[in-house]
Amino acid sequence: MGQVRHVVSVSLGSSAGDKRIETEVLGQRFIIERIGTNGDYQLFCRRLREFDGRVDAIGIGGINLALVAGRRKYYIRDAVRAIAGLKTPVVDGSGIKQSWERHIILTVLPERGLALRGRRVLLVASVDRFSMAEAFTEAGADVLFGDLMFGLGVPIGLRGLTTIKVLAALLLPLFTRLPFTWLYPTGERQDTITPKFGGAYRWAEVIAGDFHYIKRHLPDDLAGKVIFTNTMTPADVELLRQRKAALLITATPEMDGRSFGTNVLEAVVVTLSGRRPQELTPGDYLEWMRRAGFQPRVQRLTPSA
User: Fold this and answer.
1) Phi-psi region of 62 (alpha: psi -120 to 50; beta: other; left: phi over 0)
2) 201-236 pLDDT tens trace
3) Of the candidates 188, 232, 186, the residue with the CA atom closest to the CA atom of residue 209
4) Strands, sheet with 19-25, edge to edge from the N-terminal-most edge strand
5) How far apart are CA 54 and CA 87, in angstroms?
6) Would residue 118 be called left, alpha or beta, if left means φ above 0 and alpha means ψ between -120 and 50 degrees?
7) Which residues contact 103 (CB under 8 A, 6 or more apart)?
8) pTM score
9) Is 34 helix (H, G, I), strand (E, B) or coil?
10) Kindly report the CA angle at 4 between 2 and 8, in degrees rounded to 5?
11) What own/partner pairs with CB < 8 Å and gap ≥ 24 does 19-22 have?
12) What is the percent of the chain with per-residue pLDDT over 70, rounded to a whole number?
């Protein structure tokens, strides 16, 4: 079996979601860990430095290195500062989002009878997953973008990728310089649900995107809804089941009872490839995911699904 590979995800999220597993991927043994820092940015930075040089790859959770709209990247100041000087490869899941999530929407779901043409999709944040926004649009879905609602609390849904690009060019140069915790629920805030924007949830057949945004304003009734997300703990799955969601799809596979974030899977792929993240293309990520035999998790939550 050879050397044990070790990847760690350090997250600004709640430590309640911490997990450590041992598994095998393509004949290699892996230790996979997720460690939350409860929204404490200084602790987050210290943890990153503690693992630097001691593990094969580091994923960062609860924060992105950059937000994307079209071909433009807007780097987040807090994230850039946090990883400055680290020698171990650091990933935020963007490689998986740009390749694997797109592949699931355009290829895997139609093969499983879940084509999206004409279906009403609420994507809670497109600048976090612009490739997902493009894929839903290309698949012919009727997409409502919730960036203003779920990011800023402004009750306005957005339509069209061009609108997203224009607003991103206007707003993201400023917002990416603000403390990231102002825009994204971290720490204990990830466990707080304040029902809001019920009309958008009711309108949607499919609710997609980062689960912390989805959960943030979750209504009591999700009957018949399809949830396409990631980073799901058993408690999160039970929450959706209690609210009668029909189907749960996660881009990353279930591992020992939960699906890790895309940053974890990206760290595994980078380790398997033996290359730096910047050397891997979306096609490379897709090929490694296929070689590893990873599959999305598709779980029926209610009998009527």
Assistant:
1) left
2) 999 999 999 998 999 999 999 999 999 999 888 999
3) 232
4) 19-25, 28-36, 5-11, 57-61, 90-91
5) 10
6) left
7) 286
8) 0.92
9) strand
10) 160
11) 19/233, 19/256, 19/258, 19/260, 21/255, 21/256
12) 97
